[in-house]
Amino acid sequence: MGEVIAIVSGKGGVGKTTLTGNLSIAISELGYSVLVIDADIAMSNLSLLLGLDNPPITLHDVLLGSSSAVDAIYDGPKAIKIIPSGLSISTYQRVDAERLVSVVNDLKNKFDYILMDAPAGIGRNVLSAMSASTQILLITEPTAPSVADVFKIKIVAERLNQRVLGVVINKVSNVKGEISDKEIMKMLELPCYGKIPYAEDIRQSFLLKRIKPVIIYSPNSASADAFRAIARKITGKEVDVTQEGKKRKGILAMLLNLFSKKK
Predict the structure, then answer these.
(1) Cα dihedral sign for 47, 17, 161, 109?
(2) How many domains are there within the chain?
(3) Is 9 within a domain?
(4) How many CA atoms lie within 13 A of 93 on its CB side?
C-alpha cells in the first residue's frame, strides 16, 4: 500500500502548490511511482504548473460521482501521474469533498506515493484531504504569522489522529527578522524536512509562456536541490555526504595508483 501525503499550509501563498509539483517529480526521479492530486478543489492551479491544459475529466467529476478516478488520471512530466481539479465554480459548489477519502483509498495500491495539494486553512475541504492521507507534510514561511497559522493546522491534524511528518520552510532568505529553522522546529515540535531558498529561478519558472516546475526549468539550481533533498528524506534515500566523499577519495586513490604503476 502506498503512502498518501497531504501537503498543507495554514494560509495561501506560502508555496504549497510549488512544493507539491516539484516534490512529486523529485520522488519520481528516485524510481517511485507517483500520483499527484490537486485536492484544492476551490482554487486549483496545480495542473497549470504541471503543464496540463483543459483536462476533460477532473476531480470535480469524480467527487460528483459522474466519472471514475481512473478516468481522471493524466500523464505528467517525468513519469508522474496527475488528477487535476476543475476550474468551474458552479461544479465546485456541488461536489462532495468527503468522497475524497474513498477515492484515495481506491488508488492507494496503485502507486508508491500519492501527493495531495490540499487547500489552505482549516475548512471542510482541507479536513477531507487530511483525513484521506496517511501522512501530512506542513509548509510555512519563516515569519511569525505563517508559523502561527501552520501551528493551528498541526493541532487539527493531531485531533484527526493523523501523522505529521514535519515542516518544510519556504522562501528562506536568511535576512534579519526571519525565524530560524531551529526556532520553528522548537515551536512546532516537529522536524524540519527541508528549507527552500527564496530564489529568482522559482519566480522565473512562473513567468514562462508555459509554466514549468523549477526542478525541470533549472534542474541544477539550489532550489531544485532543495526539493530533491526533501524527496530523499521522505523516501528514506538520504545521501550520506561523508560516505560519498570517502568513495570519491577512494576512487581517486585507485586511479592515481593505477597511473603510477603504468609509469
Answers:
(1) positive
(2) 1
(3) yes
(4) 3
